[in-house]
Design a protein that fits this description.
MetI-like fold; 15 helices; mainly alpha; 275 residues
């Protein structure tokens, strides 16, 4: 009986948490009046043509074009963030070097610095380099392990792996990089996947930085295209079209999280040796 009540409670909580997503999908078929007068997610009628109109957007480009721009930012940024964070964490976790504690403190301090305070100097730097209105300012910084939280997570994972693994690899003839790639990396795979998912989701949802860096509509990522499809007053256009664009834009994020859910959760919760 207790288990039955627990299942009912968890189901109710699940429905409450999923309801905003259900409402978003249902609202994409509603008229403006329905959207603002009813909290029920089911529309009175279903017209799938709204998704065709949403895909075409109000700009000269389709959502496919904006998806391509978005992935041209996300894919290199994710690869850079994962590879650089792994290398830096490996150095902190396995090697001794001068001023190691000092640099680690700087790393921790960087975790607490809001990114908003660095936007102005970064903008000025990219402007001086002539790289505004390109994807380079949005991807290149990730090559230098700029997310301290990622490095910190990986350090904790690596510290939980016995050093005997490294010694055994060296006896078998593995060098420093081979030890990392073939011995340690499989053990920290949950953390690596977590970093990749975080980077994907954060970049997919990022609005402010592309707004500052990208100036051409042709190069807009999806987050800016969504804003471009509405006017400043929010009146005089079909709300459901914008909502339908939002639903389409959510698909990659939901798919990535669903695909990597198991490793993502274990990467966040595990505190020791994983593999």
């Amino acid at each position: 009986m207790k288990k039955f009540l627990l299942y009912i409670f968890l189901t109710a909580v699940g429905v409450i948490m999923l309801y905003p997503l259900l409402w978003l999908i249902g609202a994409s078929f509603k008229t403006n009046d329905e959207i603002f007068t009813s909290i029920w997610f089911m529309p009175k009628s279903i017209d799938t043509s709204v998704y065709k109109n949403a895909w075409e957007t109000v700009t000269p480009y389709t959502m496919g074009h904006y998806f391509l721009n978005t992935f041209m930012i996300i894919l290199p940024k994710t690869v850079f963030a994962v590879s650089s964070s792994v290398l830096v964490a490996y150095g902190f976790a396995r090697f001794d070097f001068p001023m190691k504690k000092f640099f680690f403190v700087l790393l921790i301090c960087g975790m607490f610095m809001p990114s908003i305070v660095t936007i102005t100097p970064r903008y000025m730097m990219w402007k001086e380099l002539g790289l505004l209105d390109t994807f380079i300012p949005l991807t290149l910084p990730s090559l230098f392990a700029c997310e301290g939280m990622f490095v910190f997570i990986l350090i904790q994972f690596l510290k939980g792996i016995p050093r005997e693994f490294d010694e055994a690899a060296r006896i078998d003839g593995c060098g420093t990089i081979k030890t990392l790639v073939f011995v340690l990396l499989p053990c920290i795979k949950p953390a690596v996947i977590s970093i990749a998912v975080f980077t994907f989701l954060w970049t997919m949802n990022d609005f402010l930085e592309p707004l500052i860096i990208i100036q051409s509509v042709e190069k807009y990522p999806l987050s800016l295209a969504l804003r471009l499809s509405s006017d400043s007053t929010g009146q005089g256009y079909e709300q459901r079209k914008i909502i339908a664009m939002s639903v389409i834009g959510l698909i990659p994020s939901v798919a990535v999280f669903a695909f990597a859910q198991k490793k993502f959760v274990s990467g966040i919760t595990a505190g020791g040796l994983s593999g």
